[in-house]
Amino acid sequence: MPEKLLIVLLLFITVACTAQTGQTTLDRLRCEYRENPLGIDATAPRLSWEITSNKRNLMQQAYQIMVASSLADLKAGKADLWNSGKISSDQSLGVVYAGKPPGTGDACFWKVKVWTSDGKESAWSTPASWSMGLLRPSDWQAVWIGMDSAFAGDRPTDTFTRLSARYLRKDFRLPKKVKKATAYISGVGLYELYLNGTKTGKDVLAPGPTEYNKRTFYNTYDVTSQLQQGDNAIGAILGNGRYFSMRGNGSGLPPITNFGYPKMICQVNVIYEDGSTEKIVTDNSWKVTAAGPVGTNNEYDGEEYDATKEMPGWSKPGFNAASWLPVQLVSRPGELLVAQMNNNIRVMDTVRALHVKEVKPGVFIYDMGQNFVGWVRLKVKGPRGTQVVLRFAERLKDDGTLYMANLRSAKVTDKYTLNGKGTEDWEPRFTYHGFRYVEVTGYPGKPDLGAVEGRVVYDDMATTGHFETSNDVINQIYKNAYRGIRGNYRGMPTDCPQRDERMGWLGDRAVGARGESFIFGNHLLYAKWLQDIEDAQTPEGSVPDVAPSYWRMYSDNMTWPAAYLIIANLMYEQYGDDQPIRRHYASMKKWMAYMKDKYMKDDILTKDTYGDWCMPPESPELIHSKDPARKTAGDFLGTSFYYHLLTLMESFASITGNTADVTTFKNLEEKVKTAFNKKFLNEEGGYYANNTPTANIFSLAYQLAPEDRRKQVFQHIADKTLNDYKGHISTGLVGAEWLMRTLTSYGRGDIAYKLATNTTYPSWGYMAKEGATTIWELWNGNTADPAMNSGNHVMLLGDLVVWYYQNLGAIQPNPAAPGFKNIIMKPLVVGDLKKVDASYHSGYGLIRSNWEKIDQSFKWRVSIPVNTRATVYVPSKEAKNIKEGGKPIGDNKDVKFLRMEDGYAVYEIPSGNYDIQDDF
Ligand code: RAM
Prior knowledge:
The chain is of the alpha+beta class and 920 residues long. It contains 15 helices and 47 strands. The strands form nine sheets. Strands 19, 20, 24, 25, 26, 27, 30, 31, 32 and 33 form a ten-stranded mixed sheet that branches. Strands 34, 39, 40, 41, 42, 43, 44, 45, 46 and 47 form a ten-stranded mixed sheet that branches.
């Protein structure tokens, strides 16, 4: 067919289809908030879709879902699993599957169509799918295998533990043609699966880390294309990850739980073309060796790889494994082996070095241009047996060599021994580093710039947010935040990625998670982490400060474990997902009761461990302030947090239908509030505790202060910040949780803007000015003692990113209609800020807010996804000059004027794109 004719034909088809669907399309079908997930174990999974349209004012009025066990059936309109019929509902997020319960391993194909408020019926969506995992323990014919002892060269009990990777393998025959093959695998600490010589999937550092003695994850992969009729081989490499401890006794660190030697379980379910089936399972016919090239691997200390020990063909059929040992059948790690519902980590980005310098003979330092997390890929050519050593650091010393002091005992050293055959490309598997600079020694000759390439690894999740303003300081800080946040996702949110710590500290995320959730689709990671927290709860009810509890820190603190409730609430508000609240309600309630019984005295919660952690200290070398005037009392923090959590529990109780609890929580709230005000409100001065901004912030943010006192209390925050702290931040991570939003909601967005754009100490801008490309652990990270001074922490961000999106960007979920079903859009037009371009991809679609202030006019382009509405605050003295699409806004029938409020004209607008302008 001539090309022109084809184009005309395609155009005709497109026009015809568009006409039929009214330019409304269904897109991004998700099951359990993932795209075509494999091996899920939710038997009533939640289905979601997005509707896009070029029409305004469009709501979904009904939907129909069809689910079939084969794609052909679904396409033919047969739904043997579920045909929901036409359901009148505007729900398009998290619709619970209500068909026939799918069985173990079953594939489910689904499609959806909707009826919209313009009276139209959409076409069916493109089909999507999911598959079930192994639902019952009896579906596992595979057993756990490994070797419960050390191999030659291992030093499992040293302070710096060393344990080589274990290679496991087996040959097998598949007598017939394979139609479909699915691998279910878990290997702890970490595994890589190989079939017939190739690695399965793109995941790295899999599976996700868990409270192993309770729960272990398995992953599911479609391996059909990796198998063949006839001879096959399966193999796996097991690394230590967080299962086999990175440190033994005597490290001076809190002891890291050692769960034991690496082990795995794997089952490949094969379906032949003729319908018969077969299972390839881990059992005692497998063999194991630790004599392969991947030697010791330790997340703190690095990985060693000896290419002279490579075993060509080890995961291909027919390999001679005579020197390998038979595996042992070993005990399972914990009670539960469950499907991992959050994505694994992947290589998400690559970074090229800016320059390389030979700082001493044979010592080459690469500057990667940014602090990031992952590793480097090494390219090298040279004689067999040559060893190249790579070390990593965040900073350099004055002489240009690596500054390692703040990494504490972490050795962060990768070693590669060449096999000498041509150009060799290598990257590690079972370690990761947090670094900007790479030191290369032992390299044969002079390495060129391309000899190392940065590999950025973090949990596979979408970047959902975009944020840019006319202010360079804010833009730079945003980039630093973005890098720091992604770098601290390691299947759990870690505090830091570089030193001998890297733990899932709860407090760091109590507020951070909310800001992060604008930038990254972190829903499933945090849902997973809430489970880690519950798994780490003691039978008595104590919740640790670190989860998974690899460091057993049960200090019975109030402010760190508060993250458990705060993040469950965030999942609800940001993603419209109430499952975490439902799942964890009982455990949260138990924790609240535990803390009350143990630490509440006269309605004051007396316990606190960390204070307002890492507030700016009085002198540059200090880690923590010693000045009592800067510190906020522990019982103040404990009680204000306890009160806030009671209000969350009250709302969780009504969400979950625990109506009796609503009153109980409410009554206790009243008592705590009374005691709090009695103890901490200075009646005369009108401030709280010792009048730190942190103390006053919480009494306002948590609505503890009596209404008639609030203005006065707020004045103290403003005065102290402007006078005592010369317009600078005075809080640590706790106070920062509500700082920017409190300043803004009390009418001093200008002070918030000052803090956000400062470049003098202490400020986020100061970090950037001093060369930071991430966020520091300490405000004085460039001068403080290296004993606790990471260059890549996110906790001090506080609510800055929330403020960027919600206030500057004007994209805020309305908790009354969670998941951005209703969006509050109230831009803070402040200081010399001329422009903000923010967008956020919500579960309903892309929300955009792009404003610009030019002289006497305010221009605002807004996009509201189909099936949502927004309450829009247009900065205006009087509404009369406001236009939309060049015409008076009042002419627009889709826009409803609600009221004037505090210098804003407030409208309700339905879905669509709007061009708003106010000339004042
Ligand atoms: C340090 C880190 C971490 C913090 C704890 C209390 O280990 O700064 O982020 O949460 O202390």
